[in-house]
């Protein structure tokens, strides 16, 4: 039988936010907390906005730094091999170049359409930033910032703004047709009726896209940790070391699967963003 001891939660801190970050130590169950600074809230009329850093904010910053370092190393390796007389980059630079070219040639250009190269930096930034943010939640004492609906909603909102601006720049005055439904091949009376019915549907469709992006990423990154918590919880539910090997083995398998899920969800977010940009650039009624 298992002996009762101090409660140590090793799963939920990876997805929950707090005003403290975890770090390794030996005297309190291998986990200690360091409080983050608390700042006075900013008051905008009756609304108070707390700008104090939280655990997820810290790990978003770490993900951004890791992303920046990785891209700079890849660019340096590419420049060194390209301008050093070699025909093609090798090693790390070659791998990153293959990754970038795949996203450009297979994700951005086919979905965004003509002149899609100007959207490549945005889609690449989304992909790599989300990937690093996802992976940070899999390391010990890390935290999955993309398991916070506020983070995923912000990423989705940024994408929504880029999508709408892309539609405005591409279609000009025709952009209004993506909001107000106005068919051109039916009588005026039918047009008015269809406009009254379908315009709210068009607006709802616009809002559904960022909502889907936010919820998909949030739910998938949270679900893996919840499954891990359930599996590890089986050991304490049965209070026996006999059943421990099976939940631990399954938890290890789920953790390995989470690496693939982190890559997949970053790819899906980038792919859907490219699709939405391509749709609004070619939207017609």
How would you characterize this protein structure?
This protein is globular. A hairpin with a 2-residue loop joins strand 3 and strand 4. By secondary structure, it is mostly helical. The strands form 2 sheets. The chain has a two-stranded antiparallel ribbon with strand order 1-2. Strands 3-4 form a two-stranded antiparallel ribbon. It has helices spanning 55-83, 91-112, 120-136, 149-171, 188-238, 245-281; strands at 20-24, 31-35, 42-44, 47-49. The chain has one domain (12-36, 52-281).
What layout of secondary structure does this protein have?
Layout lengths: L19 E5 L6 E5 L6 E3 L2 E3 L5 H29 L7 H22 L7 H17 L12 H23 L16 H51 L6 H37 L4
Antiparallel strand pairs: 1-2, 3-4
The largest sheet is: 2 strands, antiparallel
Structural class: mainly alpha
Uncertain residue segments? 1-7
Give, in spatial order, the strands making up the sheet with the most strands: 1-2
Strands, count: 4
H-E order: EEEEHHHHHH
Fraction of residues in H or I helices: 55-70%
**Helix run count:** 6
Envelope shape: globular
Q: Kindly state the mean pLDDT as a whole number?
A: 83
Taken as a percent bin, the fraction of beta residues is 5-15%
Alpha carbon gyration radius: 24 Å
**Whole-number total of structural domains:** 1
Distance between the termini: 68 Å
């Amino acid at each position: 039988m298992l002996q009762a001891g101090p409660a140590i939660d090793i799963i939920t801190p990876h997805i929950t936010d707090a005003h403290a970050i975890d770090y390794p130590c030996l005297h309190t169950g291998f986990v200690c907390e360091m409080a983050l600074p608390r700042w006075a809230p900013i008051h905008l009329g009756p609304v108070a906005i707390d700008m104090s850093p939280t655990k997820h904010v810290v790990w978003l910053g770490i993900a951004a730094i890791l992303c920046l370092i990785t891209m700079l190393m890849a660019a340096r390796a590419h420049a060194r091999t390209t301008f050093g007389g070699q025909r093609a980059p090798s090693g790390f630079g070659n791998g990153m170049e293959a990754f970038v070219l795949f996203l450009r040639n297979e994700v951005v250009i086919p979905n965004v359409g003509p002149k899609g190269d100007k959207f490549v930096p945005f889609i690449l930034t989304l992909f790599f930033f989300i990937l690093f943010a996802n992976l940070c939640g899999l390391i010990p004492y890390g935290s999955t910032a993309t398991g916070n609906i506020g983070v995923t909603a912000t990423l989705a909102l940024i994408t929504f703004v880029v999508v709408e601006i892309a539609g405005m720049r591409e279609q000009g005055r025709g952009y209004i047709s993506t909001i107000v439904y106005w068919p051109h091949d039916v009588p005026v009376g039918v047009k008015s009726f269809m406009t009254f019915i379908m315009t709210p549907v068009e607006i709802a469709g616009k809002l559904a896209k960022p909502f889907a992006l936010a919820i998909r990423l949030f739910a998938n990154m949270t679900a893996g940790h919840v499954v891990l918590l359930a599996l590890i919880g089986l050991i304490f539910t049965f209070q026996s070391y006999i059943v421990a090997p099976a939940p631990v083995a399954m938890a290890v398998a789920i953790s390995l699967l989470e690496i693939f899920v982190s890559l997949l969800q970053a790819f899906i977010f980038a792919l859907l963003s490219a699709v939405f940009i391509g749709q609004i650039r070619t939207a017609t009624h």
